[in-house]
Amino acid sequence: MNHTLNKQKHYVTIIGLFFLLFVVTLLITPMIGPTDINLGKALSNDIPFKENVDANIMFLARVPRIFLAALTGAALSVAGAVFQSLLRNDLAAPFTLGVSSGAALGAVIAISLGLSYTIFGISTVPIAAFLGALGAITLVFSLARTRTGEFPTTVLLLAGVTANFFFAAMVMFIHYLSDFTQSFRIVRWLMGGLDITDYKTLLSICPMIVIGFVTLMFISRDLNLMSTGIQSAMSRGVDTVKTQKIGFLMASLLTGTVVAVSGPIGFVGLIVPHIIRLIVGPDLRLLLPASIFFGASFLILCDTVARTIIAPTEIPVGIITAMLGGPFFVWLLKRPKT
Predict the structure, then answer these.
(1) 103 contacts 132 by C-beta, under 8 angstroms
(2) Residue pLDDT, tens place only, 295-324
């Protein structure tokens, strides 16, 4: 009984600390930027909103961007933890199965065709990117699926690598045929960015992200057993095929949803799960919620650096995460194996 209570206290304490970090990050970063704002004026009701410059900067420019960074960082971090667990590979990332390159191909096609429609308030490029991500998931799973309905890890990795190369080649081909304006938009999207100014986009991706989080938390115990090996999990009564399928689909859904809006922001799903694993251990019941809050805080801070380090010019946040991810990737390769 005492052991159970201690375990619950440990769980609450760890998650509480990461949640506190997230809240502090969320409160501080809106005040940081190339233009100083007065918090009192921004929150004041005495000045009409349209005339309140401080309120416009905070609530129309910075807050939506920060919330998108939070959702993107959380989704990529959780997806990375799940991929590393199911593939039993420390170097696995949310883009391993070709989801990112599929989304990139969809976005590039929409940009090259000059599509500028909106559907339910969402522009064509994010919709095309999401459809490209779904197409990539479908292709990879159809290639890797065996006659018994299983998805062997090695075959999945090979299918993902194949899809990545194919989609990347198509992106380069379309990019080569594009004019200067289209080429600039394509390159900018491929760098990854969080520069949005509306809340409709945030609301449109929230349901799929919540579904992904809740589903993965619900099967986190089975995912833990899967990480020790297929045979070991089967001997403990886990439906390995079902768990594997749900885990990969939900992780891919999270990745495709946020990449469709923010573009391919790399290394977040590689860096965050490893940092959290060093702190709390490999138990996904603790690792996943901790990754949500730390991943959100991590990308918010990266984006804050991206929009302030050479202000008033902004750097795409994908560049910042790549600069951090390169050395981290080398460290993963060179660290002593236990």
Answers:
(1) yes
(2) 999 999 999 999 898 877 888 898 899 899
Percent of the chain with pLDDT over 70: 94
For residue 260, give Cα distances in angstroms to 17, 104, 106, 124, 281.
31, 8, 9, 10, 31
Share of the chain above pLDDT 90, in %: 24
Q: Look up the CATH superfamily of 9-332.
A: ABC transporter involved in vitamin B12 uptake, BtuC (1.10.3470.10)
Q: Considering only CA atoms, which of 99, 108, 100 is closest in space to residue 139? A: 99
Domain boundaries, the chain: 9-332
**Cα distances (Å, whole numbers) of residue 65 to 8, 78, 105:** 35, 20, 24
The whole-model pTM stands at 0.90
Residue that is written with structure tokens 């099967």 in the block:
219
DSSP states along 131-146: HHHHHHHHHHHHHH--
Q: DSSP assignment, residue 196?
A: -
